[in-house]
Every structure is written in structure tokens, then in C-alpha cells.
Amino acid sequence: MIGFIVLAAVLGLGLVGWFSARTRARLLYTGRGSLHSTPGYHGWHMALWIVIPALLAFATWSSIEPGLIETSVMSDPAAAALPAGDMERESILAEAHVIAANPGTAAFNPLSAQLAEPMRAAQSRFDLIGAALVVLFAFAGGGYGFTRIRAGFPARTRVERGVMLLLLAASLMAILTTFGIIASLVFEAGMFFRDVSPLDFLTGLHWAPANAVGDDLSSNFGAVPLFWGTIYIGAIIAMLVAIPLGLMSAIYLTQYASPRLRRWLKPALEILAGVPTVVYGYFAALTVAPLIRDFAAAMGAENPSTESALAAGLVMGVMIIPFVSSMADDSIAAVPQAMRDGSLAMGATKSETIKRVLLPAALPGIVAGVMLAISRAIGETMIVVMAAGAAARLSLNPFESMTTVTYQIVQLLTGDQEFNSPKTLSAFALGLVLFIVTLILNIIALRVVKRFREAYD
Amino acid sequence: MTRGSNPGPWQSPEMTRRLARRHAAEKRFRLFGMGAIGLSLAFLALLLVIMLKNGLGGLDWSFLSGSDSTDPSLAGVWGATKGSFLTMVVTLALSFPMGVLAAIYLEEFAPRNRWVDWIEVSINNLAAVPSIIFGLLGLAVFINTFHLPRSSPVVGGLTLALMTMPVIVISGRNAIKAVPPSIRDAALAIGASRVQTVFHHVLPLALPGILTGTIIGMARALGETAPLLMIGMRAFVASPPQGFTDPSSVLPMQIFLWSDEIDRAFVVNTSAAIIVLLVFLLAMNGLAIYLRNKFEVRW
């Protein structure tokens, strides 16, 4: 709570600084050319000097404050009774923290009730120190900024330099995110691979993390059935639906539909891409899966399961249609008009032109689009979680339930698990595999699209 | 060979047959195209009709104002809606400024060097990374490293912001690229600095395009479930969250949780929640289209 007040105070000070610096700079104005920068820039210069040091101080203090509080609570006599084990100790401290924040909460552990009082005291003490520190920084920065207000001071250049730094920092965020993804996946997966050999993980045929206890870990973490389920559902069944329908939709929209019809049909098709995946998942589980089960029963299957690879794959395919369609649309539109005109002038019908000229010419772009679609399909989570099932099996029968990489990640990480067990860590190893595969697909596809565009430009 | 070597007169029966066959193929192909698009739209219509049929009965005031409950007749979506709102506030507050600033940098100021290439490659890839990977990142970084409160709108918003930012950067760059160079030249010619040119002239003109992209990115974030599942936003939350750090649910997660319930009465709730979510998404997309049509300038 005090954090919000401090931040608001800092922003308020910044505003005050802005106005006062601008007013002061205005007083210096004596005529054309007497000021290097307009008064507004002096205001900004001052405001930046107030806000940025204060925010940096705030961020630093917020990151060290928990440690300080813990040290101070540990020096309390009641803390001597804390158990030595890390897990229990942390949970008692966490509970004390909750009680300190909401007085009156019933304590599960009496010790945490005892610790709540010293914790609250330490918390408010360090909060106050931090607030004072932040305000001090704001005033120091503001003081420095205020002394800079002189007629010849290049406030605009300084402010613009600050803006450039801000822009650069914002773009570096993208690299930081990528780096964060790779680092966290590699780190956690590395801990997993200390227990289970990567070779067993990538080539083993038996997946049963629930049985994985004791020394015999490797034999229960064979991920091939998951890879197969992912490929079967995402790259085979879904693509059997999405490629023909998406491609034909794109051809109809670009080659046959009148502009007016196209204006209505294209957004309507794009709604399919805007429907949240959880809605598709529910639809698959509620409507499509029972239909497929009944169909399987009618075909003579014994005990068909409600969850089937086919249901998940079909619905996923429909979800991908607009994606394939818009990629195909782009690549067909990129084929030079002269090629089309040439074919039509030779007497070919429209469909012959499309099949013999346009599609071959647009093929690289379409293939790249399909690769992007596959990368999206194998990373899709909610549909398979709700409709594909948990059974890790190597099977060709689309009516059986199958599991995928994403399903298992969800399954492994949503139970009540301690964080560093091989079971939870294996989810990160699966995530790493998924990330690498989608990354490769994306990079190749983007490169193909780029080269393809250049070829016809 | 036979086609070219001996065409024969146009009226010959063989030629007529061949032409008829080709025209039939043409018609068939056209019908295939219509069928493909019709089938896709029919699927969409079926989905909407089934959700409306199941859910309209459950949409009433107590459903819209209630929170999650084990009793399907008492359960409502207000708690989840508020959670979604708080999460979206965090997402927007982070991803919009970051995305716009990064787009400005890459489009207007970035030098051509290896660093900038890396930034571009990583943005393009982030836009295509599966959303569940962002969930793993959020779990490993925000929860296990920074110990932010699990299942809270702050963590959800942070995770979704990382996911939405590349979308905003890409659409922002396209919008900035569409502003003609003559605008920049004119501003520079009368003595504006490069920063002034961008912030006083280019950015206002590109803003409608950027906003459209932002709304579309936010709509996607609003419907996202998988990353939030990873950071534990699947708790049973019986009262609306009071702040950014309270445990909370979001609309798609509420749908997922209810879809798992065995009680048949939850089918009505799930479908009604889906209707609520779709109405929000439709409103957002409608707003984006309206903005695009109203403010977009064709140069």
C-alpha cells in the first residue's frame, strides 16, 4: 500500500518540478534566441531528474527490502523456535507475512502468529525508511535539475538523449524476453537431464511420470508417445482439415468472389481465428467428441473413448483454417499478374490457370504458411487439454485418446508438486523441445517467405 | 501431344466434348472453393448456435453479478470478469508503451547492425512462440525467482504483456511505415529535431493503426488460457479480487474450470460464460474495425 503512495508522491513531485522549471525558464526568456531550448524542455529535463533517480531507488529498495525484513525477524526471540527445514520455515514465514498484512486472520501455525507482530513492525519500519530514501532521491535529482536551468543550457538535447535511451531499452525488452525463455527452459531442463539421460528422454517409448520414483527414473520418462501424439494430432489430422479447406477458401476469395462478397466473407472467416481456444476446446469436448464416439461405435469399435485424437485434431484444423487461408492469400497475391494473364491468354480456363500456374508459383509461400500453421498447431494447448486425453500411446487409430506435449506440460505443472521433483522439471524439458521445434519451423518459414517475396519483387 | 498436333475444327464432336469437360471441371473447382468456405463458416455458425442454445437460459443478473461457487445455480462470472479486467490493465499498461517505443526505435532510429537484427529476429519469433511457453517463463521467472503472488492479476498481466508486446511492435511498425516520408521531410525542413519529428508528427498519424493492432493484441490476450494455467490462475476464487495481488480467476479460466465439472448444470454456466467472453471479444474487434475505418488515412 505504501508503495502506491510513494509512487504517487514521486509522480506528483515530478509534475511540480515540471511546472516550476518551466516557469523559471520562461522568466529567462528575453527575446528571440535568448534560450537554447523552449521552457517546456526545461520542464521535462527537471521532471526526468526527479522521477528517474527516485524510481531507480524505489526498484532497488523493493528488491532488497524482503531480505532486510527477514533478517530483522530472525533476530526476534520467537524466531529461535523456527524449524531448520527450508520448506516448513518458508511456509511459516509466508503465513506470518499474510497475517501481518491482514490482521485478524486465523493462524494455522501458532508460531506464525507469534512472528506476525515483529514482522509487521519490521515491515512498517523498512517501508518508512524506503519511502524516505525514495523522496530523498527525488529531491536530490530535482535539486540538480533545478540548478541546470540557464538560458544556454541545452535541455532539449539532454531530454532527447534520455528519450533515445528509453526507446533502446524498450526494444531490448524483446531480446530480454527471448533470453529469459531460453535461460529458464535450459536451466530447469538441465536439472531434469541430470537425473534422466536426454537420450532416454528423446527415444524412450514409455511415458509414466506418475510411477517415476526412486532410482529407475529414465525408463518412465520416454517422450516418444507424446511426440507422436503431438505430430499425429497437430501436424497430420489438423493439417488434413486445414490445408484443403484453407487453400480452397483462399483461392475462392482471391480468384472467384466478387469484391463485395469478399468484403463480407474474409472478416467472417477471420472470426474463426479470433475465437479463444478454450471455447474451441469446450466445443470439441461437448459436441464433436460425442459425435465421433458415436460414429466409432457405429463403425463397430468396442468401447470407443469420449476423448479422441480425431476430435481434437478436427477442431484444431478448423481453428487453423483462417491462418492457412490468409498465408495462401498473400502468396497467391504475390504472383505477378503477367503470369496469370499469360496463361489465360493461351486459352486456359480459370481453374487450369490456378492449378497449373498460380499454385506452383505460389508454392514456396504456401509451404511456409503451412509450416507456420503446424508450429501453431503443435503449440496449441487448450483444445488438446479438453479433448485429446491423457493416455500416452503410440497408435494410428484416430478414435483412441492420445496425449500431446502441451497436455503433459499442463498436467505436470498444475498438480500440487514440490517444485524441484523430476516430474515438474520434465515439463520444462518438454517445453524446451517444443520451443526448439517451433523456433526451427518459424525461422525456416520466415526465411522462405522473405526469399519468395524478393523473387517476385 | 494429341492436343497440339491435330486440333481439328472447333465444332467437331470431340472438341465440344473436351470443352464441356473443361468447363465442368471449372465449375467443379469453383464449387469446391465455395464448399470450403461454406464448411468453415458453417462450423463457426454451429459453434455459436450451440453455445447460444445452451447458454442463453443461464444469462441473468445473478449470473453476471455473482462469483464462482460450487452450486451451479449460484455461480456467476463477475469475479472472473473483474480478474480479467485487472489482468488486462496490467497487460495494457506494460505492453502498450513498451511496444510503441520499441516500434518507434526499430522503424525510425535503429542503425543497421547485428544487434538490431537480433532484436528483429527475436520479436518476429516471439510473436510465433506457443503461448504455453510464455506460461513456463512466467512460472520460472515471476513466481519461482521473484516470488510474486501466485494466481494474481499482476503475474498474469506481466506474462500476457510479454506475449502481447511483439504483436503491438509488429503492427506499430507497419503503421509507422505507412506514414509517408514527405511528412518527416517537411518537419525536418522547418527545423524540428528527429525526436520532435517522430513524436509531434509521425506518431499522431500512426496512432490509429497502432491502436487497432493493440486492441487486436489485447483481444487475443483476453482469450488466452494456457499461460495463465501455468502460473496457477486456476484456483477456486469465491469472491471478486480486490486488488492486483489478490488471487483471482479470469474469464477463459472460469470457462475451463466449469467445463471440468461433472454436474450437468455447469454446461449452462460454461456456455453462458462463453457468450460473455465472445461478446467482449466481438466488442473489442468491432472497436478496432471502427477505429481503422474512421481514422485510417490512405496516402
Automatic annotation (TrEMBL), chain A:
PROSITE patterns: ABC_TM1. Residues 228-445 form the ABC transmembrane type-1 domain. Keywords: Cell inner membrane, Cell membrane, Membrane, Phosphate transport, Transmembrane, Transmembrane helix, Transport. Coiled coil: none annotated. It comes from the Bacteria. It is found in: Cell inner membrane; Cell membrane. CDD domains: TM_PBP2 (cd06261). The chain crosses the membrane at residues 6-25, 46-64, 128-151, 163-187, 226-247, 268-289, 309-336, 357-378, 427-449. Pfam families: BPD_transp_1 (PF00528), DUF3708 (PF12501). SUPFAM superfamilies: MetI-like. InterPro entries: MetI-like, MetI-like_sf, Phosphate_PstC, PstC_N. It is a multi-pass membrane protein. Part of the binding-protein-dependent transport system for phosphate; probably responsible for the translocation of the substrate across the membrane. PANTHER family: PHOSPHATE TRANSPORT SYSTEM PERMEASE, PHOSPHATE TRANSPORT SYSTEM PERMEASE PROTEIN. Belongs to the binding-protein-dependent transport system permease family. CysTW subfamily. This is Phosphate transport system permease protein. It comes from Novosphingobium album.
Automatic annotation (TrEMBL), chain B:
The chain crosses the membrane at residues 31-52, 85-106, 126-148, 154-176, 197-219, 266-291. Pfam families: BPD_transp_1, DUF3333. It comes from the Bacteria. Residues 81-288 form the ABC transmembrane type-1 domain. Gene3D superfamilies: MetI-like. InterPro entries: DUF3333 (IPR024573), MetI-like (IPR000515), MetI-like_sf (IPR035906), Phosphate_PstA (IPR005672). It is a multi-pass membrane protein. The keyword Protein biosynthesis does not apply. Belongs to the binding-protein-dependent transport system permease family. CysTW subfamily. This is Phosphate transport system permease protein PstA. It comes from Novosphingobium album.
